[in-house]
Design goal:
single chain; 213 residues; alpha/beta; Rossmann fold; 2 domains; 5-stranded parallel beta sheet; 9 helices; 11% strand; Fatty acyl-CoA reductase
Length: 213
Amino acid sequence: MAEEQARSEAEGDVLPRTVAEFYRGQSVLLTGGSGFVGRVLLEKLLFYCPDIDTVYVLLRPRKGLSVQERLHKLLDVPLFDRVRAQRPEALERLQVVECDTAQPGLALAEADARVLAERVSVVLHLAASVRFDDPLITAVRTNACATRDLLELATRMTKLKAFVHVSTTFCNERQREFEEKLYPVAGDWRSILALVEAQGQSDPVALRALTTK
């Protein structure tokens, strides 16, 4: 590690020594911030990274609540008590952005997409459906199409440093041991997306038959 740090510094690319140092001055886009893992991550960013620039939290309106109301409800839990008590100014760094991961293009307004493309340097993508009885078209749109659309948005981000995707733990269930490598998949994701999108519009009965497989 010391050799890597010295070599990086010699090449003029100084590595941050801490997480807080990495996030200094960075603007972060966070999806899945209302989920179990997302809430904990959001709290840690606010509490441990005092020099973070802005955290854009993508949320959708739900159950009659606007995204602003959902953000207020999200923060109004004991998890964020120490942020409110010790770093209340950190809450001012939050910006909520309306989206819907189940819709094409994340249902982002173009004005919001431009702001994100111009300002975001770190993407933390945690949004996913963890229900195992979702209709196939819903699961694919939320988990796969949303990731594709967010990656497409990331290609427009002029300051992008990192794109982190937190996938479901329920992958490669036939493996008994796991290594840090990419495992082959049963089908090409592009073909699966095309099939689901086409069948969902023309033949929902056939799509239901494909769901179990």
